[in-house]
Each structure stands twice: as structure tokens, then as C-alpha cells.
Specification:
The chain is mostly helical and about 260 residues long. About 55% of the residues lie in helices and about 0% in strands. Among the domains are: about 110 residues, no CATH class; about 35 residues. Helix 8 runs antiparallel to helix 9.
Length: about 260
């Protein structure tokens, strides 16, 4: 009887979910384990930090791709993921536009565009994340997107170059917005190369870009960003670079309040 029942379920196929195929929502149980997961998840690992040098490190709970998580755990992890990705998305436009707000390299147009650049980064990240998650099928067995719940955020790879280009153009007397536009155009043209590289088999990419090359590039990216991190780590960067005594453009010293000192 059991074998006949299993064969009948296979022939009928999976039942249509009333949530539009969203099995994660349809599988939520109203029991304490389904809502909170007191007996199915190690909440102690999630809520209590582990201190170094105090016993062996504990491995995180293993969650399979199709695991049914408790509702409260799903909400907490979703909020945690949203807060973590938010900072990574808005940081690059904040740094690029923030460089144009300092007194000795002021570009008011680019400085005022900070909110616009942050909004554009959030909107583009949301749209491209949908493409990545939904995984569109292409011809030849290729797909656009991975089908995984991964966020396409703002890349930090080009951030040191972008900041250097924008600042150098402003200090040379040219428009910061034009410099930022030229940088975006360069990235758009270079993205065509990355598009063709994506069709190269991984075994050839590993030979062209071995770990010593890719690792060195990642190390240089971190070294370039460490300057901004050290400056903002102590706080008061804007006041120190705008209101402290320094030589004005004509050579006269300035008082801490920005007025010319006699």
C-alpha cells in the first residue's frame, strides 16, 4: 500500500501551492517549532557571541538550501541580511560624492548629488538582484543570473580609482560631475569585456587569472580603501579638513573658524 501511494504521488506530481509556488511560506507551521524553532534551531549560537581563547570555536548550524526555517528565524536573518547589505550599497556613492564636499576640492553640484547617487545605487541594486535571483534562461543552455538569493550591490573594486579620478579632476579646475560621468562611461565600455569573459570556461579563467594575480588585486583594493577607513575611524574628518588653520589659496593663513587671520 505504501509503494502504491508513493507511485500515485509521483504520477500526480507536486501540488500547486496556494502561495503561488512560494513553498517557504506555504510550509510554515503554527506550532512553537514552526514559529520560533525552540527545539529545531540553536538560538544560543545566534544570540550569544563567542569569545576568542575561551574554549573551542563552535561551528554554525548547517542549513540546507531547501530547509524549512522557523518564521521568527527567517525574519531575523532577513533583517540581518538587509542591514548588512545596506551599508555596502550606499558606501561607494557616499564616499565618491563626499570627496567633493571638502573645502579645498569643493564641487557643489557633485556634493549636492549625494542623495541622488545613493537612491540610484539602491534602485539599481534592487532591480539587478531580481534578475540574479529569478535566473533568466538564455539560448545555448546559458542563464542570466544564478537563481540564488544573492544581492547585487555596489562594487568596491573600482572605488579607489573612481575617487582618485574625481578628486584629481576637481583639483584641476574641471567639473566633478563630468569626471564622474566619464568614469561611469568607462565602466560601461569595460563591462562588455566582462560580458565576453563570462562565457569562458572556468578552467581557462583559473589559468589566465591564477590566485596570485586575483589575490594581489584584492589586496590592493583593500589597501586603497584603508586610507578612507583610517581617516573616518577617529571621527571629525570634515571639521579637521575644513575649519582647522591652513593656508588659503592666496597664501594668507586662516584662523580655525575659517576667517583670515591678521
Amino acid at each position: 500500500m505504501s509503494a502504491d501511494k508513493d507511485m500515485k504521488e509521483v504520477e500526480e506530481g507536486p501540488k500547486e501551492s496556494r502561495f503561488g509556488g512560494c513553498d517557504s511560506c506555504s510550509g510554515v507551521s503554527c506550532t512553537p517549532d514552526g514559529l520560533i524553532g525552540l527545539n529545531t534551531y540553536d538560538w544560543k549560537y545566534l544570540c550569544i557571541p563567542s569569545l576568542p581563547c575561551f574554549g573551542p570555536a563552535k561551528s554554525p548550524p548547517l542549513l540546507k538550501p531547501d530547509s524549512k526555517l522557523p518564521l521568527m528565524l527567517s525574519l531575523i536573518m532577513g533583517l540581518q541580511h538587509a542591514l548588512a547589505m545596506l551599508g555596502g550599497i550606499i558606501t561607494p556613492p557616499s564616499l565618491i560624492s563626499g570627496d567633493a564636499c571638502f573645502a579645498w576640492q569643493l564641487d557643489q553640484e557633485l556634493c549636492d548629488s549625494k542623495q541622488y547617487m545613493i537612491s540610484a545605487a539602491l534602485i539599481c541594486s534592487g532591480l539587478l538582484s531580481l534578475v540574479q535571483i529569478l535566473r533568466w534562461k538564455l539560448i545555448g543552455g546559458y542563464t542570466l543570473g544564478t537563481g540564488l538569493i544573492s544581492v547585487i550591490g555596489t562594487s568596491f573594486t573600482f572605488l579607489p580609482i573612481a575617487r582618485e579620478v574625481v578628486v584629481s579632476e576637481i583639483q584641476a579646475g574641471r567639473s566633478g560631475m563630468d569626471a564622474y560621468g566619464k568614469f561611469l562611461g568607462t565602466c560601461l565600455a569595460a563591462s562588455v569585456t566582462e560580458l565576453f569573459i563570462s562565457f569562458v570556461p572556468p578552467r581557462y579563467l583559473k589559468k589566465i587569472f591564477p590566485p596570485v594575480v586575483s589575490g594581489t588585486c584584492v589586496c590592493l583594493i583593500g589597501a586603497g580603501l584603508s586610507v578612507a577607513g583610517l581617516k573616518y575611524w577617529g571621527g571629525g574628518v570634515f571639521c579637521a579638513e575644513n575649519d582647522m588653520s591652513r593656508a588659503a589659496a592666496f597664501g594668507a593663513p586662516q584662523a580655525p573658524n575659517g576667517d583670515s587671520a591678521d
